[in-house]
Design a protein that fits this description.
Length: 148
């Protein structure tokens, strides 16, 4: 149930992100999650789209340097403190959360996040045990924001 995240290495200069997004965001290919980490001379864009295979092909043809990692797509529960609930579940298993960022995905009025942890299998087990819902590649592929 993991999502494939593309980690794209960019020069930290005006227009680099725009160039990446122009290559990725076309036709019906949509960015569902994006976060940027920059330093003085380089930047890293973490990117999730609604179609993994088409994005992989696009990036392979782009000449950009990238790699792939797995993240867990988690629906935020309908609770007063939804983020605390997700992080608390992972903390109960002593899992280290490296980063979290929002997904542009909604289901039944609830948002979702992408979570990168040090032990994906254990995190999936714990989140499932605590009745958290996941966001899958199929969910993103079939997602229509008007009816999601």
């Amino acid at each position: 149930p993991c999502l494939q995240q593309f980690v794209v290495f960019l020069e930290n200069k005006v227009g680099s992100l725009h160039q990446l997004l122009r290559k990725v965001e076309h036709d019906d290919l949509k960015v569902m999650g994006l976060t940027i980490l920059d330093s003085a001379d380089s930047a890293i864009a973490r990117l999730i789209t609604n179609n993994y295979e088409r994005t992989l092909e696009t990036l392979q043809l782009s000449g950009l340097t990238f790699c792939e990692t797995e993240v867990i797509g988690v629906m935020l529960p309908d609770r007063e403190q939804p983020h605390t609930s997700v992080c608390g579940s992972l903390m109960s298993a002593e899992l280290n959360v490296h980063y979290v960022y929002p997904l542009m995905y909604r289901r039944n009025g609830r948002g979702a996040v992408a979570v990168f942890v040090d032990n994906v299998d254990e995190a999936l087990r714990v989140l499932k045990e605590q009745n958290h819902e996941f966001v899958t590649e199929d969910d993103l592929l079939d997602y229509d924001e008007l009816y999601g």
